[in-house]
Amino acid sequence: MNTAPLQGIKVIDFTEVQSGPSCTQMLAWLGADVIKIERPGVGDATRKELQFDPNLPSYYFLQLNSDKKSISLDAKTPDGKAILTKLIQGADMFIENLHPGAMDKLGFSWDVVHKLNPKCIYGTIKGFPVSSKYKDLKAYEPIAQVTAAAASTTGWYEGEYDIPTQSGAALGDSNTGMHLLIGLLAALQQRNKTGEGCFVYQSMHNACLNLCRIKTRDQLTLEKIGYLSQFPQYPDGKFGDCVPRSGNIEGGGVLGWTYKCKPAGDLDSAIDANNYVYIILQRGEKEFKLACQGFGFEDWLTNPDFATADARDKHKQEIYQRIGAWTADKTKFEITEILSKYGVPVGPVLSTKEVMSDQSLYDGNTLVKINQGGEIGEFVTVGCPFTMSNYQPAYGPCPSLGGNTDEVLKSLGYTDDQIASFAKNGTTAPLPEAK
After folding, report:
1. Measuring CA to CA, which residue among 203, 18, 162, 188 is closest to residue 94?
2. Strand order in the sheet with 276-281
3. Residue closest to 186 by CA, chosen among 198, 195, 176, 203
4. Residue 20: predicted pLDDT
5. Rounded distance, CA 357 to CA 348, Å?
6. How many Å apart are CA 60 and CA 381, to the nearest integer?
7. Structure confidence at residue 253 (pLDDT)
8. What is the pLDDT of residues 28-42, one digit of tens each?
9. What InterPro entries does the database record attribute to this sequence (predicted)?
10. How far is the C-alpha of 197 from the C-alpha of 192, rounded, in Å?
């Protein structure tokens, strides 16, 4: 029995780079038939971005386009428009992430697609909500982060590196793709009731802002009382009128911080920048007592500067210094083992190399190995982030540029002669350069 949730769903993928392809790849992993539209002779821009070999597609492309079919198609030619029209007429979803106005100019806006196929769900990714004064800007990952208050609240709060900093996580790209995925699946469920598709608009700004929810909480609190007790600036520093950068605090009401450790094994601390551990002191009396036992800091239990959570907020710098001295002669793994026995929230700071070297994470979902074949062979990527008790994705290779063009065109009823003519007139293959 095939338990793929999206079995039988056909998706026309008119997206490229990261935000759109991350969404459509997940649809493919959930069982949808995803047909990726790529420019003849060029393809998705990421095919040739940050390549490890000039003759092979980059890992950037490979990690975002597994299990899709690729059709080489110029939708600007008359034949290309006719082919895309046929594809849409038989599709359940049409998804695009071109810059504002591009699909309207091409002739495949929501209104047009809805008339062609009322059941088709139209998904779009743009930089900003329609109501935004920035709605016509061309957005990239950092643009989404800086305009959604992510960068202004990330980074260090003093010294020469006190500058707005973007997250290493793709808050504006893959995060937007996952937000769009939620909207598309909701629209699919809605269509099951109404029989009609809808327009799903997802902005990079809103996806990024959604993950900055607690920063809006902090802004409300700051405006109400004038300070933020969980921030390192409290109690002696000054607060302005907006949420400041906060270094490595946990973000909630507990005291969380990153502490330096000694090198683990053969790692040289001068080379390895990740000899750190993250430790959280919870506010509860019972949890704090256990933590003190784990550190061997029982004197804190009777010291009025540390015995209560509110007192600890006012003396956090002293706490950071003492715990930092305690962690300095232990590895991040030793500390994790010691403190976890006392129920202390703790974890080692892991590099990408350490994560990708952890064989326990190759569980069929967390990290997966995909066999691309040929010169590329096997590569690693992040799998479907959730698990289902009755379904396991099968992670297949990425398509070659236009590798499924003939197959797709024949499924639409085109003859061999017609397919050959499309290749000659620039619809599915580049026109020869004029001499």
Report:
1. 188
2. 255-260, 276-281, 346-348
3. 198
4. 97
5. 15
6. 10
7. 86
8. 999 999 999 999 999
9. CoA-transferase_III_domain, CoA-Trfase_fam_III, CoA-Trfase_III_dom3_sf, CoA-Trfase_III_dom_1_sf, Formyl_CoA_transfer
10. 9
Residue 245 and residue 152 in contact, taking contact as beta carbons nearer than 8 Å: yes
Two tokens at 385? 């982030």
Tell me if residue 121 falls in helix, strand or coil.
strand
Contact 308, 284 (CB under 8 A): no
User: Over the stretch 294-324, which tens digit does the pLDDT of each residue have?
Assistant: 999 999 999 999 999 999 999 999 999 999 9
Asked whether the predicted pLDDT for residue 435 surpasses 70, the reply is no
Distance of CA 211 to the CA centre of its chain: 11
CATH of domain 10-210+387-424: 3.40.50.10540
3-state DSSP percent of the chain in helix, strand and coil, to 5 = 35, 15, 50
Q: What angle do CA 339, 340, 346 make, to 5 degrees?
A: 80
Q: Over 80: is that where the pLDDT of 267 sits?
A: no
Q: Judge whether 68 and 24 are in contact, CB under 8 Å.
A: yes
**Cα dihedral across residues 410, 412, 414, 415: positive or negative:** positive
How is the chain split into domains, by residue range? Answer: 10-210+387-424
pTM metric for this prediction: 0.94
72 CB contacts (<8 Å, ≥6 apart)?
38, 39, 40, 41, 43, 401, 402, 405, 428, 429
Cα angle for residues 393, 397, 399 (degrees, 5° grid): 125
Which pLDDT score, from 0 to 100, does residue 266 have? 61
**Does residue 172 contact residue 19 with C-beta atoms inside 8 Å?**
yes
CA distance 288 to 302: 12
CB count in 10 Å sphere of residue 53: 9
The one-letter amino acid code at 204 reads M
Nearest to 219 by CA among 200, 248, 240: 240
From 44, 92, 173, 313, the catalytic residue: 173
433 vs 402, 423, 429, CA distance in Å?
A: 20, 14, 12
Q: Angle CA(228)–CA(231)–CA(237) in degrees, nearest 5?
A: 80
- In contact, 380 and 356? CB cutoff 8 Å: yes
173 is catalytic: yes
